[in-house]
Amino acid sequence: MSLESLVDEIRRRGEAELAALTANREEETAKIVAERDRRVAEVRAQAARATESEVSRESAQRLAAAKLRARKHLYEVRERRLDAAIGETRKLLQEYTRTPQYATVLRRMVAAATDALGKQARISGRAEDSPLLAKVAGKNFDPTPQPILGGLLAETPDGSRRLSLSFDELLRLHEDRVRELLA
């Protein structure tokens, strides 16, 4: 082998090795770029899913809060309407005390009170009802006026038992039923 052919052989081998190294480097570079692009796409997709999930959750929370506010507002409106209706019922009961039927109701209340607490039960009521109660209850009538809408209060002579047949108490006891009827 001549020197020239040896140099040519070394040069060819060098160029072949250089070409192989260049091809290997380009292949590795392509793999790295592909891996980078895959990771970037994966991170973007994950960020998009997380954003969509967060937006969906935020939207659901806002919707739930709006529904809750609407229910609360509806409840408040319903309660105001029911309170107004109870107030109107109180007015109607007050007006009822001016009707002729009210005297009959008071007589029956006195009878119920004396049946429940005994013949000696003390009977008291509104100042406006004093003449009628004095007539019906007789000597058991207590003239102390009571701050009630109508009806009467009865008590045993020793004060151990008390019966309230006042319109206020009857309305309070049956308020749930009245609200149910008005709703």
Q: How would you characterize the largest beta sheet?
A: 3 strands, antiparallel
Shape: rod-shaped
As a percent range, the share of helical residues equals over 70%
CATH class category label of the largest domain: Alpha Beta
Total DSSP E strands: 3
Strand content: 5-15%
Q: CATH topology of the largest domain, which one?
A: hypothetical protein PF0899 fold
Low-confidence stretches: none
Number of helices: 5
* pLDDT averaged residue by residue: 90
User: Would you tell me the structural class of the helices and strands?
Assistant: mainly alpha
- The H/E string reads HHEHEEHH
Termini, distance in Å? 115 Å
* CATH level 4 superfamily of the largest domain: ATP synthase, E subunit, C-terminal
**CATH architecture term of the largest domain:** 2-Layer Sandwich
Number of domains: 2
What is the gyration radius calculated from CA atoms? 47 Å
How is the largest sheet built, in terms of strand order? 1-2-3
Overall description:
The protein is mainly alpha-helical and 183 residues long. The chain has 2 domains: 1-72; 97-182, hypothetical protein PF0899 fold, CATH 3.30.2320.30. Helices cover 73% and strands 6% of the residues. The chain has 5 helices and 3 strands. A 3-stranded antiparallel β-sheet has the order 1-2-3. A hairpin with a 6-residue loop joins strand 2 (152-155) and strand 3. The relative contact order is 0.08. The mean pLDDT is 90.
